[in-house]
Amino acid sequence: MDVFVSRSGGLAGLRLVWHVHVDEQPDRDDWYLLIRQVPWEQVPPVPPEPDRYVYRIRCEPHEATLAERQLTGPWRRLVDRVQETSEPERARPANGSDRGLKRPATPPGRDA
Amino acid sequence: MTRMPRPSPHPSRHAAIVPPYLLARIAASDDPRFDVAADAARRSLVRDWSMLEWRITGEPPTFVIHDHAARDERPAAAPGTGPRPDRRISDAENDDVLPGRLVRREGQPDTGDRAVDEAYDGLGDTFEMFARVFARDSIDDAGMPLEATVHFGDHYDNAFWDGERMVFGDGDGEIFRSFTSSLSVVGHELAHGVTERTARLRYQGQSGALNEHVSDVFGALVEQYSMGQDAESATWLIGEGVFTDAVEGRAIRSMIEPGTAYDDDVLGRDPQPAHFDRYIDTDEDNGGVHLNSGIPNRAFALAAVELGGFAWEHAGRVWYDVLTSGRLRPTSDFRAFASEIVRAANDRYGATSREARAIAAGWAEVGLGVPPAP
Fold first, then answer.
1. Cα Rg, chain A, nearest whole Å
2. Which end of chain A is more exposed for a tag (fewer CB within 10 A), N or C?
C-alpha cells in the first residue's frame, strides 16, 4: 500500500509530494491502523484562505483534498508521519485531469 | 528607506496638465484636508522635475525634505490629520495557534525582534499607500485594525491571510527566510483583505488567479511607493529577498517576466505562464491561482512601464477603480476583468488617451485583447 501527500498552494505556489511505501515500514501495522482511522469520506468543503496550503492525500481506494486548517486529528497524524518518514519531491504543476501524484518529479529535495 | 526618488533616466514624456507652480503649492500644503492631493502633487512634481533642473538648483525641492522630516516625526504629528493605522502585531512563538501573544501595538517603539518590526513597518507602509493614494482607510475603508502574527509555526515556509489577520512564517532557513523581510509580501497579504472587502473574487480558477493578481499589484505598488520608485526602475518582483542565498533565484514571482523569477536545482524553474495561450489547467493550488496570476500580472506591468512615472498614479488607480466599482462578480474571469479594466481606463482618462491605449495594449500582449466598445 502507498500513501501520497501532495501539498500545493502557499504564497510561492510551490508543490511538494511525499510518498511512503507502507509495506516497507517496520511499523506497518500502526500505519494500517492510522489509515483506517482517517475519516476519508467526511471532508466538508470549506472556503479557501488566500495563500494557505492545499493538501491532497491519496491511499487507494481513498483520496481527499483538505485545506491546511482541516488537518486535525488523524489527518494531522497521518500527514505528519508521512512527512517525517519520506523526503519531499518537488513537482511541476499537475495539468488538467492528471491527478499528478505519479508524475516523475524534479530532483529530490535538499537534505534537511 | 527614502521617499525621494532618484531622477528617472526616462523623464515623463507627457505634458503636465497642472502647472508646476500650482503643484508646488499643493505639495507644500500642510492643510490636512489636502493630504492626498499634496502627496500626489509632491510625487507628480518630483516625477516631472527634469534632471536639468535638479542640476541647476543643486538640491531637491524643499518640500521633499519637508515630507521626509514629517515622516520621521510621525508619532508626534497632530491627531485627526487623516486616517491613522491601528497595528497589532502578535507572536505565535513558533507554535501554530493564532493569534499568539500581542507584542506590539500602534505607537509602541521597535521591539528589537526583526519579524515583529518588519511586519509593523510593512503594514504601516501599506496602510499609508492605500490612505494617501487611494483615500482608503484600512482594509475595510472604516479604520479596521491591522492585525498580524509573526513567527507562526515551526520553520513555516509561508505567509497567508486567514480572513482576519496576516500570518507570517520564519521560513526553513535553507530555501526561505522570514516572509516579513519582503515589503511586497506584506502588501500582498494586506491586499487579500482589501479584495475580500471589495470585489470578493472567489479563490478558485481564473477568479482566484485574479485575486492573487490584485494582491501582487498592490504588493508591488507598496514597495515602489515606499521607495519613490518609478515604473522603469522598479524590479516588478514579488517576494524579493525571501529566498536564501542558496537559491538560484531573485524572488518568488516576476510580474513583468513571469516564469523567470527563479531557476534552481532544487526548486526547479518558475512555472508561471506569461500568456493566456499557456494558461495552466490544474486541480492543485485552488486551480493554479499562484501560477496563472502571471498572465494578468504581465498585462499590468507592461502597461505601467509603457506609461512611465509612478505606477500607482495611473495603472494602479485604474485597477483600484475596478476593484471597488461593484461591477466585478466573484466569479469574473480574465476576459471579464480585462474588459472592466479597459472600461475604467476609458472612463478615467478617455478612450484615446495614452493611458487607455497602454492598458489595452498590455492586455493584448498577453492574449486578452479587449474588442473596442460598439
1. 14
2. C
